[in-house]
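Morning run. Coffee first, then this:
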Amino acid sequence: MKQKIWKWASLLPLSLVLLLSGCSENMLVMRPKGPVAKTQYDLILWSIGFMLLIIVVVFVLFTVVLIRYREKPGMENYEPEEEGNTLLEIVWTAIPILIVTALAIPTVKATFALEKPTTEKVEPITIHVTAANWKWIFSYPDQNIETVNYVNIPVDVPVKFKLTSAGPMNSFWIPQLGGQKYAMDSMETELFLEADEPGSYMGRSANFSGEGFTHMEFEVVAQTQKEFNQWVKEAQSTAPKLSETKYETILKPGLVGRMTFSNTHLEWIDHSKQNSHHAGEADEQARLCNPLEGNGIVVE
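And here it is:
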């Protein structure tokens, strides 16, 4: 019986390795491409390392106690001391406090530090982000450009994302550039991110918002400053104008392709400052989770 137990127990580490191997391709958080993501990555490693140390110490002590104090032939009966041990009670009260403190201090410091640009030497670029069922809309007020389902940013320049929603609450997340933050109707939250090398990075919603939630993804294109400036000039000169009618169509629940416009919807509505009349409709869609084909539209 004991041999069978040890046989199955020996397979547990192998099973864990096999399970974790299936996550290797999608663990984008562990491949940071910006200073914000790298700070959070360091926190993750610190927390994992610290917790592993605690686990090792606990299992070693557990093994020592099992071996040293196991019942042996001819062993006299042990009469427990019921009055307690003040020193031990202080120790096992202090240890959890020290553990929480060791994890909390770097986490709190990093959290407050990341609420502002990572550098003061470069002026941040501001991009308004509007979540809608089931797409992401990016507005560049200074460049007078609007994109749908993709966003271009310059490398080594802090980006100030101003998040809001034209419908139900969503969570804006670019795993390789930093953590997520909520986008809510009639509210505005800010998120500072930065890419430190050119590339294409996946972004998505991390908050369930209805039937099309799984397709609510966007691409972040990090470019050199020269490439970004060239893209801005091309978009300003070649992209069509966004009309209110077209914008109303985009906001309807459904999937859309990538779009680029040479003006922004901020000219006539800012969902962070006024209650969006689309919110009620979108919330209802999210609650009912109706099929996309029956209730939404697909805009090419």
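Residues 29-61+86-115 form one domain. Good start to the day.
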